[in-house]
UniProtKB/TrEMBL annotation:
This is MALL protein. The chain crosses the membrane at residues 27-51, 57-80, 92-112, 132-152. It comes from Rynchops niger (Black skimmer). The gene is Mall. InterPro entries: MAL, Marvel, MARVEL-CKLF_proteins. PANTHER family: MAL-LIKE PROTEIN, MARVEL-CONTAINING POTENTIAL LIPID RAFT-ASSOCIATED PROTEIN. Coiled coil: none annotated. The lineage of its organism: Eukaryota, Metazoa, Chordata, Craniata, Vertebrata. Residues 21-153 form the MARVEL domain.
């Protein structure tokens, strides 16, 4: 007899590799994360870095997460994951932790923006700091979206 009443086991979607990475929704966030994160550390580096402890953390978080996300993107493109389920867990944990770190960096950059309002060359540095704060919050949002979309996939 055929198994007419037994439902089929749910299948997990395959992890993309190659250019299909840019077409699937959780993994398509990686490139915008890298680009916005690159803008954060370029804009912070263009300022006078009046607050080295605050903006040093912002630079560390943005640069390290940009490099790790780039390595993750390269590993997805070349298919190093071999469709393993642990890559989804690794990806979700990495993007969740990085979202928390980026949120702390974005808040510190916003604080540096507020305190850089007065002083020499304040209009230029204020604009650069506010742009860096904007991109830091956008990057935080992208990391949160990636973490939740891979978790609920």
């Amino acid at each position: 007899m055929a198994s007419a009443g037994i439902p089929a086991a749910p299948t997990q979607p395959a992890l993309p590799s190659g250019l299909a990475v840019f077409k699937t929704i959780p993994y398509a966030f990686i490139l915008p994360e890298i680009l916005c994160g690159t803008w954060v550390w370029i804009l912070v580096a263009a300022t006078s870095v009046s607050f080295p402890l605050l903006q040093g953390w912002v630079m560390y978080v943005s640069l390290s997460s940009c490099l790790i996300s780039l390595l993750l993107l390269i590993s997805y493109i070349f298919g190093f994951h071999k469709n393993s389920e642990t890559w989804k867990v690794l990806d979700s944990l990495y993007h969740g932790a990085t979202a928390i770190l980026y949120l702390s960096a974005a808040v510190l950059q916003a604080n540096a923006t507020i305190t850089s309002e007065s002083g020499p060359n304040s209009p230029l540095y204020y604009q650069l700091n506010s742009a860096a704060s904007f991109f830091a919050f956008i990057t935080t949002f992208l990391y949160i979206l990636h973490a939740f979309s891979i978790y609920y996939q």
